Amino acid sequence: MIRAAFPGGVTLLQAAALLPPVAVAVFARGAGATAVLAVALLTALIWDLVFARARAAPVAWHSVTTGLILAVAVPPDVTLWQVALAASFGVVLGEQVFGGRGFGFLSPAVAALAFLAFSFPGTGLAGAEPAVAAAAVPGLVLLFAAGLVFWRLLAGFALGLCLATLLASGALPAPSLAVSLCFGAVFLLADPVAAAATQAGRWIHGLIAGGLVVLLADMGPVNALVFAALLASLAAPLVDHLVIRALARRRDGRRRHV
Amino acid sequence: MIGLNAIRERRIRPAAGPVGALRRPDRVALVGADYPGLRPVLLVAEGDRVRAGQALFTDRHHPEVAFVAPASGIVETVALGAGRRLSVLVVRLDAAPERDPPTKEVRVGGARAALLAGGLWPAFRRRPYGRIPAPDEVPEAIFVNAMPDRDGAPDPQAVLAEAGPGFDRGLDMVAELTGGAVFVCQRRGAAFATPGRERICTVYFPDPAAAGLSSHHIARLGAPAPGGSVWTVGWQDVVAMGELARTGRYHGQRVIAFHDGRGEAALFPTLLGAELSDLADLPGDAGAAFRLVSGARIGGREARFLGRYDTQAALVPVRRVSLFDRLAKHLAAGGKPRPKPILPRAALDTALPVAIPPVPLMRALAIGDVEAAERLGARGLVEEDVARLTHLCTSGSDYGRLLRRVLDRMEGAA
After folding, report:
1. CA-based nearest distance B98→chain A, Å
2. Which of A178, B37, B181, B238 is the most interior residue, by most CB within 10 Å?
3. Closest C-alpha among B261, B248, B323, B313 to residue B289
4. What percent of the residues of chain A are helix, what percent strand, and what percent coil, each to the nearest 5?
5. Which residues of A touch B10 (CB under 8 A)?
6. Can you tell me the ipTM of this complex?
């Protein structure tokens, strides 16, 4: 069990988990991806510094992980000012306006990618390659050991995906689909800050996301996952609220001595 | 506790080693931190000679509740804090323990008066709110915690064998205080309470860390109805009550587990409120690199004296700051400190002894949202329940203090 007792430790862990997929993406896609990486990182860090300065607070550096995720999920042919705009949107409106990492309820990377796909139609997000999926596995193991991904959420997601595909087409999802969703499921969907906070809520959160991916599958796997993750994380507070109400009702019903 | 630690969260087994000889400290103390909000009416002054079991002060709101000296000696210091709350009362003990003349046995039916006057009333704490109950309160049930309540606490199995009939007699005293059940919560094995007695139920709980806390037992067996209360009491206090009932003497000894970080914990009896430095072989010149902690490894407090409700103490080396820690700290440094975020992670999910989702609770406590905390069931919690959250959370908040603040507001509104 790896224990990070400090927000900076969590950032280091998540950045470490992201390094293999980023390396694979940059290596496989060439100069375009390097430029995307540089612009995304730079933009994200500038906003971090700006908000730290505005709040007279220490720099959290957490947007490094947002930049790294964007470097994998943004295709190399996207114009760089669009990357900068999307990264700004994600970091500012997905995270910093709430007070920074851990105070909001969205994954800034998901917000940035959703913004990119929504504002510039035709942008097919990347990160579905089998090589990237394979590179995401060590990160998954690391994050799981640190308790920074919740297995209930991922299991719920897999279940939701299977159930929705069964309902829609009468067959289980193709393995290629599972592979193409691997990176996104670990780094976009399973962000602990955006996930539901109750155990039952995490199952439901995963189920909703899995179902939505099938519903939105026409967009392409990563686009579908980004919007599914966005909608599911918007629903998460409501899910938590309902779970807590159900727990309270059960507690009140059990109030008696044997 | 700072930084990125590749720490294996090792469970420390209950201390079950052979019970050593009594270690008598030079000083004992009653510490205000054990009785939050208590305003004492002092019955002794500095320099007075006191006997074991003699009342030192009473609660201003409940003059019947006596707080007594664990052993005979001379009152050395009486310190009051803000609002005339008790800060600390230190008694320097006599070199040789004075044998008090035995007084008479406690009659059946006289338990309440005997416990109040005999100084054992503060052993009880009521839920909700975790305070010493009022002298005339009748709880719905009383939960005797006969488990090693934290990692590394003394195993009652190793100690109670010698207590013999004392524990049963103590349970009789406890049972007189309630019309409901007395639950003896313990681990698997031989029942500590002689079976077959009316209203005294032995309940077995499995081993995991959080199952040792009374909140877990209460949640399992039934929380109090709105407006009602249940009480909790530790197994060693029940033994002391049995002793009081049989001999009329105040039994100020408690078996504690002392962890010095080298191998197995030492298990030995000492006096309530013992000065911790008298119990340990302090490392000579490296003394500065150690702290004395009263209570469990997680949730204990740095202290000079053993806490009233603590059953373990530790000599904790002050950890050297690792390179990782410095790097992580450096990343976040520069600028004034501000609230750090609560980052959810899996370890938190098993940190509470009751089925309350930890992250919503932490958020509610952090912002002092009484309503949300109430809905989550925080009313039944006490500080010891959230100690693991404090230990695990990235925010560095002290959830015990935050919980007490929320509980105070609930109590004020009730």
Report:
1. 45
2. B238
3. B261
4. 75, 0, 25
5. none
6. 0.90
Q: Pick A102's closest partner by Cβ from B1, B333, B341.
A: B341
DSSP conformational letter for B15? B
What pLDDT was estimated at residue A219? 87
- For residue B333, give the nearest of A5, A58, A195 by CB distance: A58
Q: Give yes or no: residues B266 and B378 share one domain.
A: no
- For residues B314 and B346, membership in a common domain is answered with no
B234 and B110 in one domain? yes
Question: pLDDT of B329-373, one tens digit each?
Answer: 666 555 456 678 888 988 888 888 888 999 999 999 999 999 999
Min distance A232 CA to chain B CA atoms (Å): 17
Q: From B217, B233, B44, B209, select the one nearest B132 (Cα to Cα).
A: B233
- Number of domains into which chain B is organized: 3
Residue-wise pLDDT for B95-112, tens only, equals 776 666 666 667 777 889
| Virtual torsion, Cα B106, B109, B112, B113, nearest 10 deg | -60
Same-domain check for residues B209 and B163: yes
3-state DSSP percent of chain B in helix, strand and coil, to 5:
30, 20, 45
- Yes or no: say if B234 and B123 are a contact pair by the CB < 8 Å rule: yes
User: Which domain, by its residues, includes B359?
Assistant: 334-413
CB B205 within 8 A of CB B184: no
Same-domain status, B85 and B172: no
- Cis peptide bond N-terminal to B128, omega within 30: yes
Residue that finishes a domain, picked among B274, B293, B320: B320
> Which residues in chain A are contacts of B345 at CB distance < 8 A?
10, 146-148, 192
Residue B4 lies in a domain: no
**pLDDT per residue rounded down to tens, chain A (258 residues):** 455 667 788 888 999 999 999 999 999 998 889 999 999 999 999 999 999 888 888 788 889 999 999 999 999 989 999 999 999 999 999 999 998 888 889 999 999 999 999 999 888 888 888 999 999 999 999 999 999 999 999 999 999 999 999 998 888 888 888 899 999 999 999 999 999 999 999 999 999 999 999 999 888 899 999 999 999 999 999 999 999 999 988 887 765 544
**B205 and B260: one domain?**
no
Identify whether the C-beta of residue A94 lies closer than 8 Å to the C-beta of residue A112. yes
Mean pLDDT of B153-166: 78
Q: Kindly state whether residue B298 falls inside one of the protein's structural domains.
A: yes
Mutate to test the interface with A, among B336, B345, B376, B395 (most CBs of A within 10 A): B345
Instruction: For residues B220 and B117, state if they share a domain.
Output: yes
Would residue B5 count as lying in a domain?
no
β partners of residue B79: B88
Final residue of a domain: which of B320, B353, B368?
B320
Q: Left (φ > 0), alpha (ψ -120 to 50) or beta: where does A129 sit?
A: beta
Quote the minimal CA–CA distance from B176 to chain A in Å.
18
Residues of A in contact with B180 (CB under 8 A): 257
Same domain, B224 and B257: no
Residue B3 included in any domain: no
